[in-house]
């Protein structure tokens, strides 16, 4: 049986994993290569490395980090952040990534989805969507809007429409982050995730709001997510994927339990 | 020595890296002569079936046919497994090696009255593992491997392990010296490493 995936996300700046606490203090959480291996050994099904450096000088550091992280990692490995062209993507694949995640650059130039997919296959392209519910609308979930630039700029695009377009242009998966729930550790946005998951044929990865095992069970059930991503709950040994998965299995969720 | 065929398939780097990690001696090549001399051949692949058209152009198809007839071990990964069949509806104009009968087909959009997502992405179980399979040696029923694909090979007597998604399909195929896996052993943690080690140690 196909299992629900637990994806560990590493936010990387200048070659180190960082974690903001309430968006202010950036805490150094360690070396990406070492953390990625620890997550994989701890039962994570995939690793996502998100480059938040977003400077030109940071690109060389990023590729070196990707290379070091991929060297002894034998689970799927996605890299996102600052990928603006098929050449950027190609460099990241050469360094050892299996998939790239693109966000603002896909909004700016939707052809990029097909350009990367055409060379590397649809399975290698994840379109990340930062979504915010449209408060005050008759249907705040259905009217949820796509934001770019780290959630600062509204695009006027409806999340469901953009997800469908990304699929038609050849995205292999959608990574949906709810800005309403992100960082709150109070649960994923299950209503929005379900709406997007039902609108497309491709898998949807839910992100934003993970706090407890119940939140994961909820987004896999009610939220119809195919995978769920979390960062902070896995850092500093708060919990690992194995513990999370054992709880999920008891709750009746199909998960891969490595020996 | 293992000849790893380079036809610009996406996962070449990962497959080479993993074989190297396991201590295999390799030569990454586009040269049919290297393929003819190799004791073992690995054909990686992920992406579109039409990419395999290059194999014919390079003369690799004929070299593989001769090598496997002489007993060279062959392992196809993902699209590399699909290429062992007659073809794929993904690119009907591109023919496969035809070592195994049948065509690869897309997953149905509906199965058992429910919508079925494609691509089939994620960790799924290996089932009905054939007891005599050398590639699957030491792998237990129900162990998980990582898949990402939209087309799949049919079941046959050569199926060495199946996986259920929209009905069972061929997860691994094996007849004597010719083998293939639809999943990505290079991305399937300890289970995948075991499969590749089994191949290296043949």
Question: What class do helices, strands and sheet pairing of chain A give?
Answer: alpha/beta
Q: Element order, helices and strands of chain A?
A: EEEHEHEHEHHEEEHEHEHEH
User: CATH topology of chain A, anyone?
Assistant: TIM Barrel
Domains counted in the coordinates of chain A: how many? 1
Radius of gyration of chain A: 17 Å
End-to-end Cα distance of chain B: 12 Å
Number of DSSP helices of chain A?
Answer: 9
- CA(first)-CA(last) distance of chain A: 17 Å
Within CATH, the superfamily of chain A carries the name Aldolase class I
Instruction: Return Rg of chain B in Å.
Output: 16 Å
Enumerate the strands of the largest sheet of chain A in spatial order, edge to edge or round the barrel: 1-4-5-6-7-10-11-12
A few lines on this structure:
The complex is a heterodimer of chains A (259) and B (202). With 259 residues, chain A is of the alpha/beta class. Chain A is built from 9 helices and 12 strands.
Description of the structure:
- The complex is a heterodimer of chains A (259) and B (202).
- With 259 residues, chain A is an alpha/beta fold.
- Chain A starts with a strand and ends in a 9-residue tail after the last helix.
- In chain A, strand 4, helix 2 and strand 5 form a beta-alpha-beta unit.
- Helix content of chain A is 33%, strand content 26%.
- Chain A has helices at 32-41, 58-70, 86-94, 104-108, 111-120, 159-168, 190-199, 213-221, 241-250; strands spanning 5-13, 16-21, 25-30, 46-51, 77-80, 99-102, 125-132, 145-148, 153-158, 173-178, 204-207, 227-230.
- In chain A, helix 1 (32-41) packs parallel to helix 2 and helix 8 crosses helix 9.
- With 202 residues, chain B is of the alpha/beta class.
- Chain B has one domain (2-200): Rossmann fold (3-Layer(aba) Sandwich).
- Chain B has helices at residues 12-21, 32-37, 53-58, 60-69, 79-82, 189-200, and strands at 2-5, 26-29, 40-43, 73-77, 87-88, 103-106, 110-111, 114-115, 120-125, 144-149, 151-152, 159-164, 168-175, 178-181.
- Chain B is globular, with a radius of gyration of 16 Å.
- Chain A binds chain B through residues 1-5, 40, 45, 70-72, 74-76, 93-94, 96, 98, 120-124, 172-173, 201-203, 226-227, 256, 258-259, and chain B through 10-11, 13-14, 17-18, 21, 46-48, 109, 115, 117-125, 144, 146, 148-150, 164-165, 184, 186-190, 192-193.
